[in-house]
Design brief:
With about 400 residues, the protein is an alpha/beta fold. It folds into 4 domains: about 1-95, Fumarate Reductase Iron-sulfur Protein, Chain B, domain 2 (Orthogonal Bundle), CATH 1.10.1060; about 100-135; about 155-270, 3-Layer(aba) Sandwich (Rossmann fold), CATH 3.40.50.1860; about 270-395, Rossmann fold, CATH 3.40.50.1860. It has helices at about 1-15, 25-30, 40-50, 55-65, 70-75, 80-95, 100-110, 115-125, 130-135, 170-175, 180-190, 205-210, 215-230, 240-255, 265-270, 290-295, 300-305, 325-330, 330-345, 360-365, 375-395, and strands spanning about 155, 165-170, 195, 235-240, 260-265, 280-285, 310, 355, 375.
Length: about 400
């Protein structure tokens, strides 16, 4: 621990306090307090690691208020590993962080007992979930699947196989938005790909990692690595940028091993889709933070929207929706301000449809955008290349 602490102390000490990170930090832009920006958090972490500051509720709130969006890492001229330092700081502070203790217990239980958690979610679908909808905590009563999807290998074959891919479903698709997984399978089969959804895959571990529970997150990571590393597939696809970032970038940091062929669906599909016939609709695209900053995927989703035949209205400035994984639960005030601001930006475009590439962003934006569809990119792809084109083939 002392070696690791010295490493991160040296890392945060590299900050020259230029302030470049503040320009794109959503929490700083929302509050304009130094301690809610990346530079301020690095200064607090330096004090903690040097023994000048002791854990306290105020310090905990500042370090845990970060959305871990990665905007600061992308703009730091010295390449300081800011999110890595935040993760390490949370690891040091989590035992003293009483404010999020129940959230940690809930996440640990859900990760350890996914089948039981799904059963509880299913039983609460007519009681608890509608109450959460009424209070505005969740946008709608989710479509809870009847059975646990990870009990057996699911292989979807095609007559003329073009290739073979695997899907990492992730918790949001598994438990809340299973229709997104079905849409992805439909598109892949339409393009001639055999699809495997391997049994035994678990949560990517990010919810645990963000709460400072790195050892627990590493256990899940090692299990996923064992399952997916043995597959002979062209690519491992995920509908969630956070899961993709975890498998590709965070796993090597916490386990020493990652998955090189894991990718976002937009990267995989972009050069495999043909141009579809245009329709008289417009859309605006919301960039998920982990896709935009963490994975540097920016042009591919926009190009796919164009290929799907839908007019794209691009905003001048991208914004954060405030979801931030569990941050929308533990930092409701900041999350709410960011959500309202981004909602105004998106609505001002007058686009018919809002499109994003993240299930979390989709859930978050659906809370405030209720007069037009908020779609995941895969739903747009399925509409253009499965339903719309199938209809044209039937007419022909």
């Amino acid at each position: 621990m002392k070696v690791e602490q010295s490493k991160y102390l040296a890392e945060v000490s590299r900050c020259v306090r230029c302030g470049s990170c503040k320009a794109f930090c959503p929490t700083y832009n929302s509050s304009e307090l130094e301690a809610f920006g990346a530079r301020g958090r690095l200064r607090l972490l330096k004090g903690l690691l040097a023994g000048q500051l002791q854990p306290s509720p105020l310090l905990n709130d500042r370090i845990f208020s970060c959305l871990l969006c990665g905007a600061c890492d992308a703009t730091c001229p010295l390449g300081v590993d800011i999110t890595g330092a935040i993760y390490y700081g949370r690891r040091l502070l989590h035992k003293t962080d009483k404010r999020r203790r129940y959230l940690r217990s809930l996440v640990k239980f859900s990760a350890k007992h996914p089948e039981l958690s799904l059963g509880i979610l299913r039983m609460s679908q007519n009681i608890l979930l509608p109450a959460l909808v009424r209070r505005g905590i969740i946008p709608f009563n989710p479509e809870v699947p009847d059975g646990f999807p990870g009990n057996k290998d699911q292989v979807y074959s095609v007559p003329k196989k073009r290739g073979r891919v695997a899907i990492f479903t992730g918790c949001s698709v598994n438990f809340l938005l299973p229709h997104l997984g079905e849409a992805l399978i439909n598109v892949l089969k339409k393009l001639g790909y055999e699809v495997i959804v391997p049994k035994g895959s678990v949560c990517c571990g990010t919810p645990l990692h963000t709460l400072g529970l790195e050892e627990e997150a590493a256990k899940l990571a090692r299990k996923n690595l064992q399952i997916f590393s043995r597959l002979k597939v062209e690519a491992i696809l995920s509908l969630c940028p956070t899961c993709t970032l975890a498998l590709k970038t965070e796993y090597p940091k916490i386990t020493g091993e990652g998955l090189e062929n894991v990718m976002d669906i937009s990267v995989f599909f972009n050069d495999r889709l043909e141009i579809s016939a245009p329709i008289n609709k417009t859309s605006v695209y919301h960039d998920p933070c982990h896709l935009y900053h963490g994975l540097n995927v920016r042009k591919e989703p926009r190009e796919i929207i164009g290929k799907a035949g839908i007019g794209l209205i691009d905003m001048e400035d991208r914004g954060c929706c405030g979801f931030g994984g569990l941050s929308c639960l533990s930092n409701k005030e900041i999350s709410g301000r960011l959500l309202n601001e981004q909602t105004r930006n998106l609505m001002n475009t007058k686009a018919d449809t809002v499109v994003t590439s993240c299930p979390g962003c989709m859930l978050q934006l659906s809370r405030t955008i209720t007069d037009r569809p908020v779609l995941h990119l895969v739903e747009l792809i399925e509409e253009a290349y499965c339903f719309r084109q199938s209809g044209k083939e039937a007419e022909g």
